[in-house]
Amino acid sequence: MDFYETYRELKNIQFEDKFEDVTESDIIRILQKDHLSEQDFLSLLAPAAGRCLEPIAQKANQITVQNFGRTILLFTPLYVSDYCVNSCVYCSFSVENAFPRRKLALPEVEREGAAIAATGIKHILLLTGESPQQSGHDYLKDCLQQLTKHASSVSLEVQPMDRQKYAELIEYGADGLTIFQEVYNEKIYSELHRKGPKRDYKFRLNAPERACQAGIRTVTIGPLLGLDNWRKEVFFAGMHARYLQERYPEIEIGMSLPRIRPSLGNWNPFYPVTDNEWVQAMLAVRLFLPRAGITLSTRESAELRNHLIKLGVTKMSAGSSTAVGGYSNDNVGTAQFETSDDRSVKDICSYLHEQFYQPILVDWPMFDFAK
Question: 3-360 is classed in which CATH architecture?
Answer without folding.
Answer: Alpha-Beta Barrel (3.20)
